[in-house]
Amino acid sequence: MDRTNSPKAGRGALEPRQGAQAIRRALAVLRILAAGREDGVPLAEVIQATGLTRPTVHRIVHVLIEEGIVERNARSGRYAIGNQVPELALARPRPSRLLVAANPSLRRASAEIGDTLFLTARTGNDTLCVDRRIGVYPIQVLSIEVGARRPLGVSSAGVAILAAMPAQDARKIVAANEKRFEAYRTDTATVLGEVTAARRLGYGMRETGLVQGTKSISTWIKTPDGRPAAAMTVSAVRTRLGPRREQEVAEILLREARIIEQAIGG
């Protein structure tokens, strides 16, 4: 008897694929919850952002709550990352290669520019703020905290990272994030337009940052194999970044981004 054609053999072949699918779905849910930080995310928003059915999201969230990975706020009904996640992160005590390589550049650029600097890493279809340096200018734009996660494309850092990758790859990510853009008051056409402009300029720029009355400039940082892995951003009140100073700040960021790339490659 040929066992490879038996129903049991067919089920065995499907199990690894189904297991991988379940893990990917759980990770998709966790990424959405991570963007909500301590405020949490309503279940309806998780469903919309992931494209999963309500029963599927319910099952995933229920298991993650049982494992301490997710918590539910009894008063608001919102879901957030649980205490187990930072505890698991302690198992990786050493800072990433990116953070080590970027530290001198962040310190140097912060002293030169005087406004808030952010280092943002790409993680899947999102950006994650991994470092922030406060400058000496009296008015600082603290629009994002370390640990904040955003869909690629809603910030100048995300736009810069998208601009540094092949156009087809950028379009795929923007399409995948389309449902999530609404919460940030933007859309696919706007993001793709900003990406095109960033390619032309050589850096990402948003006339209106995540906070009204601010402006942001970002330069991408690539790995040795040419993949955009991060972005370095300056955010300031708009009056601080007129055309002349915008160019000066962009040149500093571009210079330091190349230094970081060399340090990563070394």
UniProtKB/TrEMBL annotation:
Gene3D superfamilies in the cross-refs: 3.30.450.40, Winged helix-like DNA-binding domain superfamily/Winged helix DNA-binding domain
GO biological process, one term: negative regulation of DNA-templated transcription
Keyword DNA-binding: yes
Alphabetical list of PROSITE patterns matching this protein: HTH_ICLR (PS51077), ICLR_ED (PS51078)
Domain HTH iclR-type stretches: 20-83
Domain of life: Bacteria
Matching InterPro entries: GAF-like_dom_sf, HTH_MetabolicPath_Reg, Tscrpt_reg_IclR_C, Tscrpt_reg_IclR_N, WH-like_DNA-bd_sf, WH_DNA-bd_sf
Transcription found in the keyword field: yes
Domain IclR-ED: 84-266
PANTHER family, per the entry: HELIX-TURN-HELIX TRANSCRIPTIONAL REGULATOR, ICLR FAMILY, TRANSCRIPTIONAL REGULATORY PROTEIN
Protein name: IclR family transcriptional regulator
